[in-house]
Every structure is written in structure tokens, then in C-alpha cells.
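Hi R.,

As promised, here are both runs. First protein below:
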Amino acid sequence: MSPRRVRAETDAVGRRERPLLITVDGEAVGGNDGQTIAGVMLAAGRIGWRRGASGAARGVFCGIGVCFDCLVTVNAERDVRACRRRARDGDVVTLQSRWPGMPGTAQESGSEDR
């Protein structure tokens, strides 16, 4: 999955950028209408947003809603799959972890859960 946005002038489908703004753990993150929450976060350079059992950063794994690696809390609703949920302007996203005592991670990248 590529974290790059397709610019409107080069989009063969003809979509036009309509900006939106979500908040991730208190930080404003910009995206485009139609992007998933995972897409907004990836385009902003956030590739890890929770921790696995080993403590390694985790983010999107399958990207199609099968693996549950991208779970976040959206507008106080827990266990939302970020790869399946379209971002809406004003969404409040909170990172979460399945493992007690291990908070999500907003900025860490490059680690894999082994």
C-alpha cells in the first residue's frame, strides 16, 4: 500500500481533492475526502500507530479489513478498522493497543512485530 496521494491533475478517474481534517491523539492531520483513516495517516507519514505483544510498532498489515492490525478508536467508538473506515472531517481518532499497559504509538515507524 502506497502512502502517497494521487494529485487531482493526474488522477485518471477524475476525482477532485476536497480537504478534510481529523485529529489523531490531539494532533491535526489533513487528508482528502474519500480516504480511509489509514490512508490519511499513511499519507501523513504515520506508519505505526499501536504496539503488538512484543512492543513493536504496528499499523496497516492487510489493508482490506481482514487482519485487525489497524484498530483505532474513532469518536469514542473502539475497535474501528482504520483501513475500512472513511475519514470524515472532524473525526477524533485515538490510538489503542490490545495489550494492557502498552499504549499506541503515533510516530514510530520501521519496526515489525516478530
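And here is the second one, sequence first, then its C-alpha cells:
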Amino acid sequence: MTRHPPLLSRPLSTHRPHRPRHPLGTRHPRRLLRSLAVLAGALLLAGGLTSPVAARPAAAAPPPVLHVEGNRLVGPDGAAHRLLGVNRSGGEFACVQGWGVFDGPVDDASVKAIADWNANTVRIPLNEECWLGTANIDPRYRGAAYRTAIDGLVQRVQAHGMTPVLELHWSHGRYTGNSAGCHDVHASCQKPMPGAAHTPAFWTSVANTYKNDPEFVFDLFNEPYPDRATPTTAQAWACWRDGGTCPGIDYEVAGMQDLLDAVRGTGARNLVLAAGIAYSNDLSGWLEHAPHDPAGNLAAAWHVYNFNACADESCWNRTLAPVADRVPLVAGEIGENTCSHGFVDRVMKWFDDRRLSYLGWTWNAWDCSSGPALIRSYDGTPTPFGIGLRDHLRALDT
């Protein structure tokens, strides 16, 4: 498998990737609670203690604690806030492939380079088997070791004043049907829906770890595509929300309501994102099937690339605008495979005109001619595609 499987795991026809350590007692009280949660998770899932989490670098102003107010995201002062930034791929695939936790550096300098683009948000894809520490993952990259590495990155993101979005990308469950990315039961590719076997436990663990960091955002599942398995779109949306036994999917599915319940069952009130079907490119049934959130802090997520079905203003006006009129809308991934930025320029304009949120895919130093890579190197040197997002973010009056 290549080092940019996010592209290979989804058919292109429809979609398209050393700081000092300090004792725990010297940390901010909320950091102490989180560190204890990480340590508790290590004991529960891995059977042993983990080393202390990396200390935060000199901090910028912290990201705001966000909540939903009508169709806007607002901070504690009631001011509207947009999530604008990038995805940092790697945590979803390196560990399951057995060669690391991240693809490239995630040190303070590399995170600062993201902030220097005027980004205020970093979406971090995760792998549920690596987080939970299942036996098929290399011990160096699973359980406590994986969680500690992820926590180091999110602390650095937070320290530079950016919102971390923790997102489940790859999950367990054997799927061999239409558009299967792999036939492996393990979390080694994008599956059509999360599985009941592990995903609720994953979100219970993540939410317990970060429920005392309410500025963090939880993105329940990367790119659902039950519509590729079920006979009808109505069945796909029912599967999306309710899970259970879904036509065309052999494993027991965890629906969005199951995952939201897992998060809220921990007491976490963090903002939660729920992406639609068709690799997150279809929100036509989102309002009708939105899961119930007792915390009232749920937003819709959507992905778009130039090769998606819903990739023009006519479709956006028809299917996105009604959703954006009712709930906050976050484009969790935007990109194009042209090594240019003409398409994302149009996406950003449409979203800017409505004061909506968007995140570019992806902050990885891949060849942009093989897919949507924003950078040539982790110092922030952009590709021709990345120039469009960088210059646009720097010019925005958010």
C-alpha cells in the first residue's frame, strides 16, 4: 500500500490522505486531568504505564470553546467562529502498515508552519485499532504508544492557538462489496460505515480522554458510503443514522446515533461533526436523519473534490444551502487532483460568502500530481495547489 492510501481507498470516480518532558504535576489542571485519562487508558487497554506526554511549547491564545447557536459556531463570547485550516494525514495509516505513527514530522516547527498559513484548525485522522491497541498492530505503534503520540500532536496544535479536530478515519469490519477499498477485516482502509465491534469503544475512549478539553472537536467518521452497499438511498441514510444490520454490509454497523451516544455518555459536551453519505459528498438526507444530540452541539460535515458528484455551485445551492441554513456546516476536506487551485478557489468563495468552515486536504509532503497535497516540505513550502489555500487563508478577515 502506498503512503497516501486516502486516495487509493476511495474510487476516484466518486471521491477522490524534541521537546523537554515535565512531570505531570507541573501542568495546567486540565492538562493533568487529560494526562491521567491517557494513563488510565494505557492501563486499561495496554496493561501498563505510558511515559509522560510531551510538554506544550510556549502557547498562543488558546482556541475557543465552540458551541452551536442556530446555524453558526460561536465562541464563549457569542462571536461567530469559522474552522479554517488543513488536514494532517498519517495517523490513520502508518500505524496499521507497521512503520510509524505519523507520515513525516509533527514537531513544534512543523505545527508552527501550519499556523503560519493563518490556519486556526487542524483535522487529525485516527485509526481505531491503533488507538485501542488491538493485537494485529505493531506494539510500537498501538495503544498507549499511539495515544501518547497523538496527544503530543494535539497539544502542539492547541499550543499554537489552533483547534484540534479528532476524526475516525479507518475502522474495523470486513467489507467486500461495491467500491471496497480492501478485503481486510482490520482498519487498513476506508470502510462504508463504522463497526459496532470497536467504534463505540473507540469514541468512549477518545471522549473520556478529551472531555475536559471542550475546545477539541470530534468528527465521528471520515467518509461513510453505505449508499454503495444498500439498494436504495433511503436505506443508506437509515443505516447511516441507526446502524445495525445494513443491506450489503456483512458486519454489524454502528450508526451516527450510536457514536454520538458513546461520546455524550462520557459527559463530553465537545462540538461533534457528522459527515454525510457518498464519501461525505451527499448531505441531501442529513437534516431528516440527523442524530439526536442531548448537548445540542452537533454540526454537519461535508467533503468535496473536483471529481465528486456534487462539485459545482448548482449542486451546492441545491443540497448544501438548505443544510447550512439550519446547522453549522464544515467542509472537513476540500481539494483537487489538478496540482492547481482553481476548483478550491470556487469552493472557498462559496463558503466565504456564507461564512462557513473548510479544511484543505492535506498537509503532507506528497507529490501533488498524485493527489491533493498542500506542501512540498514540512516547513510549509506549498505545492501549486497549496499556494491557493495558503494565500487565501492569509488574506481572510475571519
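A quick note on the second one: The chain has a mean pLDDT of 89. Let me know what you think.

Best,
J.
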